[in-house]
Amino acid sequence: MRGESVDLPVEIPGSAPLTTRLHSLLQQPAAAQEEAQTARGWVDLAYEAAYGERYAAAAEAAERGLKAPGSQDVENRLMLLRLLSGVHEMRGASAIAAPYLEERVALLRQLGRTRQAEVEAQLGTMLLREPDRVEAEILRRMAEELDDGTGPSVHRADVLSSLAVRSLHDDGPDAALPLITEACEILEALGRPQALAGARMFLAHAQLLSDDSEAAMATANQVLSAPANRAVRGAMAMLRATVHHQADRPTEAVADAMTSVELYSACGVRKGAASAAALLAGITASLSEADTSVLAWRVAVQQAELGEFSESRLLSLALGQQLLDMEQYAEAEKVLEALSLRLAGGDSDFSTRGRALMGLGHAVTQQKRPLEAMSHWEEAATQFISAEEVDEAARAHLAAGALAASLDRVDAARKHYERGLSLADQGEDTDPLMLLQALHSLGHLLCRHEEESGLDYLDRAMGIVDEHGTDWQRADITDTRARSLTALGRGTEAVAAALEAADMFAGSGDEEAAADAEIFAATVLLQMNQPQEAETLFRMAAESREISDPLLATSLEGRAEALTALGKHDVAAGLTADLEALRAQLASEEDLPHSE
């Protein structure tokens, strides 16, 4: 609601690179206390503070506006009095709001705007906040009464605007649209640009909510092409960014989101700035601009923390996840550890802390500190249980179990797998794929350590695959069964299962896994002193399937060993030479720099 005031800047230059602009916000997130030179300037500052839920600052700005040059202009004074009564009402201080409302009504009467004064006196604070359902009926009757053929009136526009707020809440955007559209038409006809900017902002959001993005964009453009304060302009830039994003126009979405962040930040609308920065972070991440995305997440977190909003927790979590995705594990650890510590104890957000601990576990695992990761994941499971997120708790235990198994900490792995299975197996509420993972993991672990009960878990896992899984998953469990049978000393059954798995993998289009299963079967045959059959399988795996060089090396090594056992030393020597050449090639490839 800027009018002719030029006290405050309404735009921030946007020609610099995104990273420069984001760095600038991080270095100077809070603007210095701004001063206005006129009453109109203080109107803008008061509105912006109120929009940013900084009600004490809004009240102070409006009070100063009443003493500033231009305060005797009746329109300025009326706006300031409405702002003061509205701000105090939003703070729950109705007794403080009342005198300002009374002064405004008295001024309206002095100006001869008797009907408007009567309406505001009768409706009181209904025009200053979202009315309840009973008040909405009163407003509806008043709107009908004011539709008396005498022409447009600002008080009818006020009533329609308040009614639209309630209609949006109760009946959705389609019910609110006719009301706010008419209010905009009235304010435009009466030449009230300040009130029109706010009404059109509401209209644009209602149009977006009703899935009419084209109309919402047109309305936003109307607002931005007319006088409006930074809070309103920031909101419209955010709406434009949202529409562009939904329409898959990322370049335009990024530009508008950045503008919104800057405008909102400049006028202290912290929640808006955080939301716009989060949108910017998501879009730039999708464009593979990871560094820009991280900066945007940092701005989002900083703005939310400045506003002391609880959303800062989720934004910190998103920042940590982005850093993990970028493989910046040390930075991710700092962010996630700080978040976890902040949420520790008391009435914390158990769910968010659980997720922070899961991410923290991944960060320290990548930094080769697996025991810390296991501890973090165990604590994450406890947090998820407190948040009544049983599935997430099960996943945390399964992750800890897999890590323990990789470290050959059998007892710890078994404890975590069994706990994960217990949590995953929730009857009707069970996530079948998670239950499958739990059964598969525990069954394999037990069999590897010569406990035949592991086969029962694998059998149950196969039952779940039959009902909910895929052909590839069936092949995978069959392959695990083959390896488990080997650990249990049942070689003949293991070979049969491995060959069955190979056929299944091939049927699923996974030639590499099929060859790996055949090579495993060949290895077992070799161990069972059946080199002829083993050599045939090693050769078939290499010659009949398209496989990777590392797997080809494994095949060559096994085949050479089988041929040696058969006394075919010359052929074995030739294969060994081929194997050494292939290993040298693989080693040289590992030494080459990897392109991004």
From TrEMBL:
Highest taxon above the source species: Bacteria
Protein name as catalogued: Tetratricopeptide repeat protein
Taxonomic placement: Bacteria, Bacillati, Actinomycetota, Actinomycetes, Micrococcales
